[in-house]
Amino acid sequence: QVQLVESGGGLVQAGGSLRLSCAVSGSIFSIKSMGWYRQAPGKQRELVARIISGGSTNYADSVKGRFTISRDNVKNSVYLQMNSLKPEDTAVYYCYTDGGRAGIYWGQGTQVTVSS
Asked: For 6-35, what is the mean pLDDT?
């Protein structure tokens, strides 16, 4: 059974930093991509950043230059370093992994709150 467990969310002042971690347990034969989505109150869930299997990365325009996604294949984990946080970054952040035919798996979400 595949499980994703996130950690690292919290309350931070604008301009501050947080690092989110997501540990993936269980076996997935082939991972197409891993990354992070977020959902703010009253808004749709949106892609924040992802790492595709070949190693390339994609970022939402709103976080480019401030957020960095990374992956540790040994620990089977994915991280999101968030710098220069803004109040509009406030959301629940969800880790995901796309296992192709195996399906898409989600973490439980971690709250990030940025105060002005």
From this structure: 93
CA distances from residue 66 to 49, 86, 88 in whole angstroms, order as listed? 11, 10, 13
Cα separation, 71 vs 77, whole angstroms: 6
CA distance 102 to 109: 21
Q: State the Cα–Cα distance between residues 88 and 70, nearest whole angstrom.
A: 22
Residue 64: CB atoms within 10 Å: 10
- pLDDT at residue 30, as a whole number: 82
CA atoms within 13 A on the CB side of 31: 23
Give the helix/strand (H/E) hosting 104: strand 104-106
Q: Are 116 and 87 in contact (CB under 8 A)?
A: yes
Residue with tokens 């230059």: 65
DSSP code for 47? E
Tell me how many degrees the CA angle 78-83-85 measures, rounded to the nearest 5: 115
